[in-house]
Amino acid sequence: MNPSVEKSVNAMLDGVPKGVLHPASGEQKFSLQRYAPSSEAGSFVQHYWIVRWDLRGQEPYRQTVIAHPNVNLVFEKNGTRIYGVGRSTTVRLVQDHGWVIGIKFKPGGFYPLFGAPVSRLTGRSIPLEDVFGVDSAPLEEKILQAPDDQEMVSRVETFLTPHLPSPDPNAALAHELVTAIRDDRNVIKVEDAVSLSGMNKRTLQRLFDRYVGISPKSVIQRYRLQEAAVRIDRGDVTDWLELSSELGYYDHSHFIRDFRSVVGMSPEEYRQKK
């Protein structure tokens, strides 16, 4: 492993990411580790993630995640594919035993490699070959047979680095805007994102369609509902009206409708299923 990659791999990112529903249950079924990219890949890659599980003799487990606005390239035995942004939630069936490694691209970070609107991938997946022009089978075997996480990440970066194009300023802008939406609770509707960006509404929507894959409205909604799920899972919620207000919902019923439309149940039903 070259020194720059080794340094980045050792900068492991701790904690369960937002959007993993009922994480306490999932932590009993699988392990998730995240690793920062090298500086060269960092313009495009948010992080690498590795999931390992051993459920031999146990029932399969279904993990649901509120989909993030990121494209993922997942190396999995006999199933390596590029996954576009999910339309609401994504579900992973964990069974038997195994491991996978994924590249989570930054919002906007996959477009320079794809060269077409990322919205074309939304809600679907495509073979690795369609973008990178290489046979995935031997690459998949080489990466997944690495002796440890560090070497697995190193092999992924060795594959990815020669394919990286020049940085795209619009990709960087898309990432900055998505990050700002995530971090600023005052952004609760598209008009707020328009003000934040300094663009007109149509230009912002075109940017997100091409570089992110979903609309600004959808990005706002997902981040607010991810935060709601985290608060519920932590047991921090005592008043639904107060929570909806803190998340920027002026109408409590609107919050409940959004939560149900994405998660598939009401906030109270979600809490009771813990």
UniProtKB/TrEMBL annotation:
InterPro entries named among the record's database cross-references: AraC_XylS_family_regulators, DUF6597, Homeodomain-like_sf, HTH_AraC
Keywords: DNA-binding, Transcription, Transcription regulation
Pfam families: DUF6597, HTH_18
All residue ranges annotated as the HTH araC/xylS-type domain in the record: 175-273
SUPFAM superfamilies: Homeodomain-like
Protein name stated in the entry: Helix-turn-helix transcriptional regulator
Biological source species: Brevibacillus brevis (Bacillus brevis)
